Amino acid sequence: MLEPHFLDSHSAKVIGGRPAILGCPLDVTSTYRTGSSEAPSAIRISSDSIESYCPLLDRDLADRPFADLGDLHLAGQSLEEKLDEIQVNVEKILEQGGVPLCVGGEHTVTLPIIQAFKKHSGKFVILHLDAHSDLRDSYEGQKINHSTVMRRVVEITGHENLIQFGIRSGTREEFHWIMEHGVLASFRPGLENTLLKRIAGRPVYLTLDLDILDPACFPGVGNPEAGGWPYKLLERFIKFLVHVDIIGLDVVELMPSIDRSEMSSITAAKIIRSLLLVC
Questions:
Q1: Is the sign of the CA dihedral 161, 163, 164, 170 positive or negative?
Q2: Could you give the CA distance from residue 279 to residue 276 in angstroms, rounded to a whole number?
């Protein structure tokens, strides 16, 4: 049986200068609830329910080619091997001039992606959308997992290149770190120019944990947190991305089996369609 593809993807090979979807079905360190490894396939299947045209952006995927490279086969490997596999494959996309759009999987996938970018790119800013700060130094005795991923990332890029949005959960130590380093930002209508000034013309990497959305509109995540962004605010943020230089993205932490209505998977597909169109 052929693997599903996202909408009518134009190619199974990287297209220079255009986005390339790469499924990263990692689900090793998830806590409370598991199942994010099912997300890439579920999103592709759900994409059949949406159109290629995006009214928000007045753009159509039919006019903007992109590749779907399928999923990495990570079963049977250690966490270190899985992360290495992700990094190697992102490096291949970059070497071919593509724009990686990685679909998790748990948020830990961001670490090897950033390691790949550090080899191939100059300075860039990371926009991190999430309910959780993911800035613990360690969690359950481990230095690398979904709760520490952004701490490991800033050790590579420097905290001055991180801007976080939507954070509403974390330890006391994490929030003290956030305040000390000034990485948390607000986003609402009218603040777009302020954010553009903070980005200061640098290339942008976006990491989007879907639990930034309020669970009332997006319940299919492993660690839901009340009080999240409404979908319309995320749309506004995506529209803002048209004005920046996107060099890569990841979308993580969908757990399809939790939302039997499939609305979370369909919404994730709609978000990815929009992200493909801002690249």
A1: positive
A2: 6
Provide CB contacts within 8 A for 152, sequence distance 6+: 111, 143, 144
Closest C-alpha to 87, from 110, 69, 111, 112: 112
The three-state secondary structure class of 231 is helix
pLDDT at 10: 79
Q: What is the dihedral of CA 195, 157, 149, 143, to 10 degrees?
A: -150
**CATH number of the domain to which 105 belongs:** 3.40.800.10
Q: Does residue 261 lie within any of the structural domains? A: yes
- Angle subtended at Cα 149 by Cα 144 and Cα 152, rounded to the nearest 5 degrees: 80
Cβ atoms of residues 66 and 51 within 8 Å: no
Q: Are 277 and 61 in contact (CB under 8 A)?
A: yes
Q: Is residue 194 a part of any domain in this protein?
A: yes
Range of the domain at 40: 19-278
3-state secondary structure of 150: helix
Q: Residue 152: pLDDT above 60?
A: yes
Question: Rg for the chain (alpha carbons), in Å?
Answer: 17
**How many domains are there within the chain?**
1
Q: Where are the beta strands (DSSP E) in 118-211?
A: 125-129, 162-165, 204-209
Average pLDDT, the chain: 95
Pairwise CA distance, residues 174 & 138, whole Å: 11
Structure tokens, 211: 């639990």
Question: SS3 of 247, please?
Answer: strand
Express each pLDDT in 160-174 by its tens digit. 999 999 999 999 999
Where does the pLDDT of residue 2 fall: very low under 50, low under 70, confident under 90, or very high at 90 and above? low
Give per-residue pLDDT as tens, 12-37: 999 999 999 999 999 998 887 889 99
pTM score, two decimals? 0.96
In a domain, 112, yes or no: yes
The answer to whether residue 11 sits within a structural domain is: no
